[in-house]
Amino acid sequence: MIALRLWWRLLRRQEAQRLTIALTLTAFTVTTGVLLTVLGGLHAFLGRGDTGIGSFYVVLAETATVILMVPILTLGGAAARLSVARRDERLAALRLAGMTGGQVGAMAVVDAAAQALAGAVLGVGLYLVALPGIALLHFQGRPFAWAELWVGWPLLLGAVAGVVALAVVSAALSLAKVVISPLGVARRTTPSRLSWLRVVVAVVVLAAWAPLFRTVTTVAAMTGILVVLGICFAILNLLGPFVLGVVGRIAAGRARTVPMLLAARRLVDDPRSAWRTVAGVTLATFVAGVLSIAPALHDATGSRGDAEGAMLGTDLMTGAILTLVIAAVLAAVSSGVSQASRLLDQRDQYALLHLAGTDLTVLRAARLRETWLPLTASVAIAAATSLIIIAPIGIPLAWSDPGGVAVFLGGIVVSVLLVTAAVGLSQPLVATVATARTRARDEALVSRTS
Amino acid sequence: MAAGPSLTRLLIMIDTTPTTQPPTTGHRSAPVISGRGLTMTYGSGPSTVHALAGVDLDVHPGSLAVMGPSGSGKTSLLHCLAGIVRPSSGHVQYQGTDLTTLSDRLRTRLRRDDFGFVFQSGQLLAELPANENVALPLMLGGLSLREAVGRADVWLGRLGLAGMERRRPGELSGGQLQRVAIARALVTEPRIVFADEPTGALDQRTGAEVMGLLEHAVVATGAALVVVTHDPGVARTCARTVTMADGRIVAEHHRPQAATAVAR
């Protein structure tokens, strides 16, 4: 197994890759940790029984799990891509040096799998650390017992294996181009515009919503809610990338500063990936938006003296906020990782822009804006869509109890702050990358004598 | 960019005290920039490397090629003159100011406003169309997107890229990419253009074409061009060539007819 031996030898000479590896590990750790935490929550609700009101909780927990699966898989995929992406150069060089495509491929896949496994094990640790915190939350009037949140060994090992499998598959897919050609360089061309069909479908569905709602209430409400949520997510996913592309095009035309222009062009270039990064926050914002009427409903049910109904209202909101916070954490890590890996991808351009007289502050501002623009646009889309959805029930309900609105807005603010903070953490990288070129020369000059 | 350079100069005057001009070397015009006693050392003790071991150089309007084998100090000299790095000792005089005494912030401003740069490759942002890539330095100087892109289009036209303004770097050939880079270097109407192996990634023929364009365009604006290269063909395009070895200038050569001899 030549590939395996060479991989091991090269592994110990990767000082330059340390940062990338740290980012990849972080992403895999958070992916696994959050996955297990979410599954633990679902496990707890399943354990509390699915009879009577309990079945409603199970449905809600399942919904939250589905919402969070998208960002979890996105983050896992980003981690896998990152584990391979920065190695393209080295792998192409090995290929030129005479390694076969199969050997290079095997080496890269082993590399990705090893990082995924390390990250997944750390993720299990993260899950165990998070358990006591989650256990403090009250649902159905009582906190969770640790045993309720413990997913059990089979599921734990399954999650770890799943993350590793995800990494291997995604590494193999993104490697295809390196294996095909040692000189293969991805060239970027004018992006194809997303079809207007997306908008047409979305508008038709949203327009049909209010009349449909009246029929839905008469049918089984439970399945109705799930179907509606599914349709809404589909609409958001259809509409999101398209609207981001349009926002980017408009912003590019009106850009007054270089950071604005760069952020807008990034959106035009790849609205889908910009969307994926913030999708979790968007979906959770949507859910919180819909549930902003919950406190009002809660008041209504509470006044009826129905204790169980009152509890349900509170729990709905707790669950929505919990989902929003988890989604925000995922989006924050996703944004941080994707910003950092984009920076590494563009390090030549950034270093040369800096040499040619671009201030580091401009480059930092550009990175921040690249995250803010899609985030704020997506959250606005989600908030607007959720308003349309609650319109038939009554928008005034959201206002009748200020608690709902406060929680809704608070959730959004927290999400945006988290994402901003994550990007902020990656900002020191800008200086490192921008001055890397002259520093690398210095090191090369010094090492020439030794 | 009328406001940019003067503001920078004002800042420099506030920031530093002007020093005396370096001695002239009998050239017709005064030098645009001149280096005196430039040294650049790395490491210490027995492993000390002298990238520059005492270089004096006056750069005048027109084209200057800096030749030499790899490791001879060409790029270190360019970095010192352009204010990208500070030399270990020596001075760089530009507009009555010693660049080596300026803060990093001011040198960055100076590079943006007064100098233009062309590198071997990789300087264009893949997401931006050609004309927005060219417009970047103007926007950094405070111009609106519309105005900056307007000027960028003019320069792209001059460099033979009319009709390709909205293409993105991925849709352009190597030679076309370098023309875009030249347009970006010239769009701010710099006094000096620094080029580090500008044809290094191109084939012989395209390289000669691009180099001819670069030389013509810079000389036509009355600016100075400093090209670092190891390619004698590139050096032949320039009116003056200095050759470096082991961190020193070891030969100098004038070729007054160079500019007219270039085949376009």
TrEMBL record, chain A:
**Membrane-spanning parts:** 21-46, 66-84, 104-130, 150-175, 196-213, 219-252, 273-296, 316-337, 372-399, 405-431
Keywords in UniProt for this one?
Membrane, Transmembrane, Transmembrane helix
Entry annotated with the keyword Transmembrane helix: yes
Tell whether Cell inner membrane is among the UniProt keywords.
no
Provide the protein name: FtsX-like permease family protein
Q: From what organism does this protein derive?
A: Microlunatus kandeliicorticis
TrEMBL record, chain B:
Q: Which protein is depicted?
A: Putative ABC transport system ATP-binding protein
InterPro entries per the UniProt record, alphabetical: AAA+_ATPase (IPR003593), ABC_transporter-like_ATP-bd (IPR003439), ABC_transporter-like_CS (IPR017871), ABC_transpr_LolD-like (IPR015854), MacB-like_ATP-bd (IPR017911), P-loop_NTPase (IPR027417)
Q: Which domain of life is it from?
A: Bacteria
> Which Gene3D superfamilies does the record match to this protein?
P-loop containing nucleotide triphosphate hydrolases (3.40.50.300)
Which cellular components does GO assign to this protein? plasma membrane
- A GO term, aspect molecular function: ATP hydrolysis activity
Keyword Nucleotide-binding (UniProt): yes
Origin organism is: Microlunatus kandeliicorticis
UniProt keywords (A-Z) are: ATP-binding, Nucleotide-binding, Transport
SUPFAM superfamilies membership: P-loop containing nucleoside triphosphate hydrolases
Instruction: Show where the ABC transporter domain sits.
Output: 33-262
